[in-house]
Specification:
The complex is a heterodimer. By secondary structure, chain A is mainly alpha-helical. Chain A is about 70% helix and about 0% strand. By secondary structure, chain B is of the alpha+beta class. The two termini of chain B are about 45 Å apart. The chains are: A mainly alpha, B alpha+beta. Chains A and B meet through helix 7 and helix 13 of A and strand 1, helix 5, helix 6, helix 8 and helix 15 of B.
């Protein structure tokens, strides 16, 4: 790898030998960590049980066993399913997750694409997964899937808005839509004249952070917003008819997007790869930046899964009411406040 | 399609059957029919509910029972009286001992024997312990049905302490088969009373935990308050019993008002009612009843009289001719056995009035103009055991 870098590699080497494996790693590693640490272990400890213990030390290889199991299973298509749409749906869901990673900065130079409208792209592609879920729900030819898909569509569209409006506050404060710029704005910013730790936007955009996390919880269809898969009502909603590798793809998509959304939250509100005490321009961050970002990501992901294991689920109408009557007005107020303070200070 | 020959008719039926297998059917004016069950995660057993939907709204719903019918009423006719308890243990499998008691009491009534006081005391204690073991699981299960995954694990964890106590006396965790005509099979083992107090403390802290984790949760309240409201008069006319009836504000408890054979009159306790009649009220009443059961057992543990545990009964039990109906306040509601004897070794006829069967009869009335998620939460709050519905 290092020789390749030194030789100034051509575009295909750079893309297919470096960026694609790193991109895969950036999506799958957090997803696997989340599944093991939180879905297998943290939930087990909360529920006073041990979780997987047999495969590898403390069950750490359980995930590999599960993946092996899914890969071996038959890829079943329901007889009345719309075969092409049914087969394509998991890829659409997974694609949006991979596209999200593209704009994430993990260090001053450690990023895939430095887009001026990075967060704009992230918000745009995050809504692509709705289409995949709707495709899965409709094409399965199953009533539970249909209800789950329709619920997912209504829910994800309703929570796109507070998600974007919560980000607008950050964008106003940072003065840029570039993800790298948002990190630097937090590193070099100051809170009402005090710049000791920079300005992690969680401190000045706390309302925005809370709205963002609630909306992310709904975007990821995690409890208390898990009606699209509500296992006690709809069996597993839009996933009901999926098995084998296609179920695995949905599964990866769910946890990878939990990781990616946590990383976006870390970039927007926790200063991304930056930690106070080291100059933000320092090359050190190209090495420790990914680790810092991963740590912050895991902390935020724990929040997501903590809520998931604790709360009962809303009903569909209550969820819409929460979005339209509470979160959206609140985020508008937040934007107005941010704008006023930005101009005044 | 015009049907003329028998073959065409068969082909038509076959094509219709194929269509019936397709799940997405667009029925424009009548809405969609959703078939919940017989295999469905929420029915924990084999209950089937056919719901006509308009969007997510339920227009009409009909429960279909009988997938787990095991013919216990008929089977009792070829079992001797002591053998019958083995069968009826399996009616409400979560509170098994409570199933035996009313049948044994009915048989005792026919034989005109009465269990000695110590047996009555221990019967009441075990009866209340099986109530705790049963309702404990409801408290966790209700949370699962509205979407919280964790509380049910706490329920299973703490129920174990109660089951251990039942097992130490009876030898069976789920199916004790311990009650005998005229008394009990065995006396209490050594040190059991102190250990039971420990298990009850555990149970009380579990109730507190559930109150904080589930009952106090805003989302749980939003999901259950004013959902599935049953007014008192409707509850009475549908023959509801147990906590479902008391949650509708009807102050009726067989333990207090029509007690037979058990020693509830020796204890200072309270019947809990709730005026609302919604799912939340049903959960609340059951939570309070679990606490009250701990209270009852604690009082009884302190006052167990000494003496024999079996009355004098013949070795071969022949029940004299006659009829008897005895009902008790079981964990799920009123459970009664109508026993007809012709003076044989076996009952001539046994009719089982099980609580869940009557409680289920209200579902077509109550599952109207609710949302699909409410079907699940209302059914969970009505609390049925499939074995108790189908027998």
């Amino acid at each position: 790898m290092i020789e390749l870098l030194a030789l100034n590699p051509s575009w295909w080497q750079e893309t297919f030998l470096i960026k694609v494996p790193i991109g895969l790693l950036a999506v799958l590693l957090p997803a696997g960590t989340i599944v093991y640490l939180y879905l297998f272990k943290a939930i087990s400890f909360m529920q006073s049980r041990l979780g997987p213990m047999e495969a590898g030390p403390y069950g750490s290889l359980q995930l590999l066993a599960e993946v092996g199991k899914w890969l071996q299973k038959e890829d079943i298509f329901p007889s009345k399913a719309d075969k092409f749409v049914f087969a394509a749906a998991p890829f659409v869901v997974l694609m949006s997750t991979f596209l999200l990673v593209v704009v994430l900065p993990a260090g001053p130079d450690a990023l895939f694409v430095d887009l001026d409208a990075g967060i704009y792209l992230a918000m745009a592609v995050s809504s692509v997964s709705v289409i995949g879920i709707l495709m899965a729900g409709w094409s399965s030819a199953n009533k539970y899937s249909l209800l789950g898909g329709i619920r997912a569509a209504g829910q994800l569209i309703a929570y796109e808005l507070p998600l974007i409006l919560a980000v607008v506050g950050v964008v106003i404060q940072a003065g840029t839509m570039n993800m790298q710029g948002i990190v630097l704005a937090q590193a070099e910013g100051e809170i009402f004249g005090w710049g000791g730790i920079g300005n992690p936007f969680i401190l000045t955009q706390f309302i925005g952070f809370v709205i963002f996390m609630i909306a992310v919880q709904a975007e990821l269809t995690q409890a208390p917003f898990d009606m699209p898969v509500a296992e006690s009502e709809l069996v597993t909603g839009y996933l009901t008819e999926y098995s084998g590798i296609r179920f695995l793809l949905f599964f990866i998509g769910e946890f990878a997007s939990a990781g990616v959304f946590s990383a976006i939250a870390a970039v927007l509100f926790f200063g991304g790869w930056y930690i106070p005490g080291i100059d933000a321009g320092s090359q050190v961050f190209n090495v420790i930046g990914p680790l810092v970002l991963a740590t912050k990501t895991m902390i935020i992901a724990f929040l997501i899964f903590w809520f998931r294991f604790t709360f009962p689920r809303f009903r569909e109408d209550q969820l819409q009411r929460l979005a339209w009557k509470f979160l959206i007005p609140l985020s508008l107020v937040n934007i107005a406040l941010t704008g006023v303070l930005k101009v005044a200070l | 399609m015009s049907i003329t020959t028998e073959n065409e008719q068969l082909a038509y039926i076959a094509s219709q059957a194929a269509d019936a297998r397709v799940n997405v059917e667009v029925e424009t004016d009548e809405g969609m029919t959703l078939n919940l069950g017989p295999q469905h995660p929420a029915t924990h057993g084999t209950l089937r509910i056919i719901a006509k939907l308009d969007g997510e709204k339920v227009v009409a719903a009909e429960p279909i029972m009988g997938y787990m019918h095991r013919g216990y009423e008929k089977l009792t006719e070829v079992r001797t009286y002591p053998q019958v308890t083995t069968l009826i243990n399996r009616i409400d499998w979560l509170g098994s001992f409570a199933n035996e008691v009313p049948f044994i009491l009915a048989a005792e009534q026919l034989m005109e024997v009465e269990a000695p006081p110590r047996a009555q005391w221990i019967r009441t204690i075990l009866f209340e312990l099986s109530r705790i073991a049963n309702v404990c699981l409801f408290l966790g299960d209700m949370a699962v049905q509205v979407g919280a995954t964790t509380p049910v694990f706490y329920a299973f964890r703490d129920r174990e302490f109660v089951l251990n106590q039942i097992e130490r006396v009876t030898g069976g965790r789920f199916h004790p088969n311990f009650d005998r005509i005229g008394g009990l099979k065995d006396d209490l083992p050594k040190g059991w009373i102190e250990e039971t107090r420990g298990a009850l403390d555990r149970m009380k802290s579990f109730c507190d935990e559930m109150e904080e984790l589930v009952l106090g949760n805003e989302i749980f309240q939003a999901r259950t308050r004013n959902i599935g409201v049953i007014p008192g008069d409707v509850a009475l006319s549908y023959g509801l019993s147990g906590a479902n009836l008391r949650a509708s504000g009807v102050d009726w408890d067989i333990r207090r008002d029509a007690n037979v054979g058990l020693v509830y009159d020796q204890v200072d306790w309270k019947v809990w009612t709730h005026p609302d009649g919604d799912s939340f009220a049903r959960f609340w009443v059951r939570l309070q009843e679990t606490r009250e059961a701990c209270n009852i057992i604690e009082q009884l543990l302190g006052s167990i009289p000494s003496g024999p545990i079996m009355a004098k009964v013949p070795r071969i039990i022949k029940v004299p001719e006659g009829e008897a109906y005895v009902a008790t306040e079981n964990p799920l509601g009123e459970m009664g056995y109508y026993v007809v004897s012709k003076g044989d070794l076996t009952p001539f006829r046994v009719k089982i009035r099980s609580a869940s069967f009557s409680n289920m009869s209200i579902t077509p009335w109550i599952l109207k103009d609710v949302f699909v998620p409410d079907i699940i939460s209302i059914l969970a709050s009505l609390y049925f055991i499939l074995g108790d519905i189908d027998r």
